[in-house]
Amino acid sequence: MTREETDVAIIGAGPNGVAVAAQLEASGIERRIFGFPFATWRDRMPNGMLLRSEPYASDVAAPVPGFRVRDYCLSNGLPYVERKQPLSRETFLRYETGSRALSWRTSSRSMSPRSGTRKGASGFRPKTVARSGPDA
User: Fold this and answer.
1) Model's pTM, two decimal places?
2) Domain residue spans in the chain?
């Protein structure tokens, strides 16, 4: 596929969008994710905020083992308690940033906030094209 084409467009690069991109990448499915990784968490959530989910439930789903919040905290000397001690926004962002460099998380072709879009009155819109033929 060309840079402008993809099998799957993922709108949003929060925890769920990044998890979907990782699963598709591991499956060899062409995808493009539109958005900046965890931008809402980084840019709009206040410093010192605590996640409502407990740490054990704050993982970004990965197609391979070793990428849970617990794994990240323990391998980086950060405190980790599974229950009844909320995870801070800062620790969550360190987890995301530290894990993002790994190939399953993102790649140059998966994180492309503007490519394949056109400017519309209310922001960027992906262009869709109907396919025909045996593999459509």
Assistant:
1) 0.68
2) 8-114
